[in-house]
Design a protein that fits this description.
14 helices, mainly alpha
Length: 285
């Protein structure tokens, strides 16, 4: 298999599995699109291990195996994702060490870590998504990398906070709670489920909790989107499309918390395409 085959494999993963990110990635020129696809494909692999079935100790061992492979001198020839990622890192200043933070965050998921304070949740988000923001910035490049790096980190945090709100019930069904314990106490919520998998907390309290968490995410978007002027036009369009899709999802959740808590929220395809189109037009101004 050639390096070109490896990149094609990563782009196929993006097309089939990155339902939201693909709308932004496709706006990049070929070299950056291929490199970011490799970053996403490896990140997806780590996420899938963390979220997979099987004994926790085996999943933790697999995460460590991927860490070792990432930092090895040469990837196995048949590992198309790592072949593409290592090639991308030779062509772009991608900080591969940031994947260690993602692996650590996914290991925390496997261990069932819970979070007492908002600061603890932000730390988790920085590990699993801020890291991907910094990896992406290595592909994009920026006029001022020192200024851009914390902004890329902040945007990743915003996206992950949105993911957490999208998946509250789905996560709870597998025994995970990401909302801070201090916030649950503040609104008198437990996130306990009844026999039918419905939350037992009063709906009005849950709605207040979700809107409170959404406000926190909005603050991180405000900070993270300051990254856009530091990027070239196509990279800014890619980033704006990804952020715009997640912001629209956040507003949908905040507008109707009971619906978001009953089933996983998602935007229709046409709305994602519209957000991406607006991002491309806006980046050209």
């Amino acid at each position: 298999m050639s390096v070109s085959d490896a990149y094609r494999s990563c782009e196929q993963i993006v097309r089939t599995q990155a339902r939201n990110f693909s709308y932004g990635i496709r706006l990049l020129p070929g070299p950056k699109r291929r490199a970011l696809s490799a970053v996403y494909a490896f990140a997806r692999r780590i996420d899938d291990i963390g979220d997979g079935d099987g004994p926790a100790d085996r999943r933790l061992a697999r995460l460590e195996e991927e860490r070792a492979a990432l930092h090895g001198r040469e990837p196995a020839p048949g590992d198309l994702v790592l072949v593409a990622l290592k090639d991308a890192a030779r062509r772009h200043p991608i900080p591969l060490v940031a994947f260690d933070e993602l692996i650590d965050g996914c290991a925390a998921d496997v261990r069932g870590v819970t979070y007492a304070r908002a600061e603890d949740v932000i730390g988790y988000c920085r590990s699993v998504a801020g890291s991907v923001g910094r990896l992406s910035l290595g592909v994009f490049g920026a006029d001022d990398m020192e200024a851009a790096t914390p902004l890329a980190d902040a945007l990743g945090i915003a996206l992950q906070l949105t993911n957490i709100l999208r998946d509250v019930r789905e996560d709870r069904l597998i025994g995970r709670i990401y909302l801070p314990a201090e916030d649950l106490a503040r609104f008198g919520c437990t996130l306990n489920l009844d026999a039918d998998g419905a939350f037992t907390d009063p709906p009005e309290r849950l709605a207040e909790l979700i809107r409170f968490e959404a406000d926190r995410a909005r603050g991180w978007y405000i900070r993270g989107l300051r990254l856009l002027p530091l990027l070239d036009r196509r990279s800014a369009a890619c980033t704006a499309a990804m952020a715009g899709i997640y912001q629209s999802l956040l507003e949908r959740i905040a507008t109707d918390p009971p619906a978001a808590l009953a089933a996983r929220s998602a935007l229709p395809t046409w709305e994602k395409a519209m957000v991406a189109a607006r991002a491309l037009v806006g980046a050209g101004r």
